[in-house]
Design goal:
There is one protein chain. The protein is an all-alpha fold and 306 residues long. It has one domain. 59% of the residues lie in helices and 2% in strands. A two-stranded antiparallel ribbon has the order 1-2. α7 runs antiparallel to α8. The longest helix has 22 residues.
Amino acid sequence: MVDLAAPIRKRIETLLGEYLACGDDSIDFDRPLGAVSLFAPDSVSWRIFKNPIALYVGGIAAVILELAEPRVRAGVWDHTSFRSAPLRRIRRTAFAALATVYGPRDQACDLIARVRTIHKQIKGTNELGEAYSASDPELLSWVHATASFGFSEAYHRYVMPLGHSERDGFFNEACTSAKLYGALNTPPSLDAFEALQEAFFEKLCPSGALMTFIEMMKRIYALPGPAAKLEPLFVKAAISLLPSRVRRRLGLLDQWDLGIIDGELVRSMGVVADRFLLRNHPAARACARLGLPQNYLYGKPRTNRH
């Protein structure tokens, strides 16, 4: 566990508190004592979701893949606050992900049910004349699959290499919550994700909305203090996660490559963040709720399981 000076830790915890305040106040990561989550403390999900670098970089990669699909793009771009209030939207989405993983099971299920109610109202026809609905199981499966890919790939690349069984385990765990959201065919393994990606490949295409999102993320100031200057670097790190053929199809070519030195910088930050205990982080609070040490997830790096 990284031991930071008290003033630095207090400042970062204050900033984290501001981020969590954008979420749903029905989620209490501290109570009731002993209440289990949808995922177990020894799950791959608990390990990955505690890392803010993996979530931030992986989340950008996931949204790029989502916006590359025209029906999903219309649902996200035309019916959410991504364009008008992108930072608030990102914070609320991050909170929902953390609540799903670390929140008490009953509270997380209630939150998911409310999200599904909102999704039922989102439908229309995109610029290609295709009908879409945010409750469409096919589109939901793509959204949840891209999130699993983004988060796990970012952790694997920029934090700690994961064994194949760990990567499959993360995808398989995600199926539990994805089904509650209405995504009935999310891939249970990395190979299954690659097959789904192949099925969607011909649908993926570049767009003005996609490039607007990428440019917006370079200057959104989602990160606190001086770290905000690194946002263009994290965008490149996210794009570098995408399969090369997908990048070519979306026109995200060499200018978006992450250089060797920059890659090492992102990895260094990811490794530090993985052992950086914030006591008000949902991961630490969930550990305390279950009677585990708050530093349960922040000890020595674990040996990869293959």
